[in-house]
Specification:
alpha/beta, abc type-2 transporter like fold, about 10% strand, elongated
Length: about 450
Amino acid sequence: MASSPAHARTSARHLLRGRRLWVASTVVIGLLSFLLSLLYLGANSNPAGAMHDLPIAVVNADRGAVHGGRQLNLGAQITEQVAAAPQLRGKVTWKRADRAEAKRLMGENKAFGALVVPEDFSASVLGLAAKGDTSPSRPTLEILTNPAAGSFGSNMAEQVDRAAAHNASVTLGKKLGQQLAQQAARAHAAGKHVAAPSAPERLLLADPVEVVVAQGHHLGSHSGYGLTAFFYTLVLVLGGMLGANVIHMQVDTALGYAAKDLGPFRTAEPVRHLSRTRHFLVGCALMAGVSLVTSALAMAAAVGIIGIDASHLVLLWIFGAGATMAMGCTALALLAVLGTPGPLVSMLVLIGLAIPSAGATIPLQALPSFYRFLAEFEPFRQVLDGVRSILYFGARLDAGLARAWTMTGVGLALSLLLGLGLTRLYDRRGLHRTAQLAPAALPTAA
């Protein structure tokens, strides 16, 4: 009868008393917690302070009005005042446009909102100054929001627009007050009695402009205020990263490199040699095929069952499959090159560094410079731009989809080069995964 292989035995107490196990576990997990806390909270702690070049359109549609024999355009004065505000210099990029151009910018994901001076603004202000009744109509400024570009970024733009509109209103109110005081003084000098402004009139003059908020780019009610793109991207990225771990484990199990545990049952295949290069290629081939299925299932759950707002479904499926494959091959390359640390490194690359720098919740323009640098190449941002374009911007190439396809392709190519290059190097040097270590000598009886 064949004898079972001898195994060294130990106790739980002996294992827990070993310093190496404690030190390795503490260092790895502690460092991971430290890095994730640093990365996530460092990106989100002070968006207003980090804000840099937030793009907002400013529109002067005011047709002007004749006052005192000369043409007056208060809209031009207000837009100049807004654009020259020193407290926003470097924080906001004002894009001067007409209304149609502002709509186009928001529809291409190039502006988080717009501040619009309407056509009758000057006429409304002059009418306000001329009226003496207690309930005059107020001139208006319109704020257009763009939650499709990101609800947080749209809210930041709205806050900036509201502050700019309020400052313009206060300045305008002071001018109106001075004008009415001059009119009263002239009337008094002419011997005419002019009633003092009533309490409602004084309140109106202190802040004469009414702010009206409207959605500048349509976003459906099942779009999560612009967050469905983020969560759908997260599904694709996790599908690629976790899928790579599953595929790597399945290939190892099929080759006999690892045993398969199912509850209390453990099975192991006979060990069969396969070069590292071919192991990586097998994993990538599986990832390519599986990605087509996972993308379809993710879309079926999101669109078919939950009912998120989505169009261009075939394109969404193809892009999702490509993104999942690129993420999966990146993770497979790191597993092939690094071995055991591969899953942790892929998590840091694809999740830890990527999500804070993606502009998914906090816009890129409100992130510290380090994260804006990461956003140029981190994969999550590239996939998010593509998903956002497909879901919210009619799959326009100039709304981020072209860059998404390009960067996803570049990322996939670099992952394949990294994986193939280093696995071939390992194979040439004879660093095979099936190399057997010499068994430790068993103690013999005295």
